[in-house]
Write a structure and sequence with these properties.
Radius of gyration: 15 Å
Shape: globular
InterPro entries: Rieske_2Fe-2S, Rieske_2Fe-2S_sf
Pfam family, one: Rieske
CATH superfamily: Rieske [2Fe-2S] iron-sulphur domain
Distance between the termini: 30 Å
CATH topology: Rieske Iron-sulfur Protein
Helix content: under 10%
Structural class: mainly beta
GO molecular function: 2 iron, 2 sulfur cluster binding; metal ion binding
Strand content: over 45%
CATH class: Mainly Beta
Keywords: 2Fe-2S, Iron, Iron-sulfur, Metal-binding
Protein name: Naphthalene 1,2-dioxygenase system, ferredoxin component
């Protein structure tokens, strides 16, 4: 299911039952890869790939609101995307998330309107 509003396209990424608290799930959509997290205070999303090397964060560990990259153990704050420990130093892009019923939706950029020829 996909719903567009403004510059955001809301896409169902999973259901609330698909991801446990303090865990991460991979979600791929239209050529992009995301990491979806469930913390005690709700669901969050970020780009799926670590900003340091090509490692997918869904293969990492969630601890105390942080995601640890599986490759070099750099950590990011899940809510803000802020890098917290070396070797990561570039902020992780985060995405809006909302829950509708049992569906967890991620807000991704809506495609740009094509110019009329």
């Amino acid at each position: 299911m996909t719903v567009e509003s403004g510059n955001t396209k809301w896409v169902v990424a999973c259901t609330t039952d698909d991801i446990d608290e303090e865990d991460v799930l991979r979600f791929d959509h239209e050529g992009a890869s995301y990491a979806l997290y469930r913390l005690a205070k709700g669901f969050h999303a970020s780009d799926g790939w670590c900003t340091h090397e090509q490692a997918h964060l869904a293969d990492g560990f969630v601890v105390n609101g942080e995601i640890e990259c599986p490759l070099h153990q750099g950590r990011f704050d899940i809510v803000s995307g802020k890098p917290l420990s070396p070797p990561v130093c570039v902020k992780l892009k985060t995405w809006p998330v909302r829950v509708e019923g049992k569906n967890v939706l991620i807000g991704v950029p809506a495609p740009a309107e094509k110019d009329a020829a």
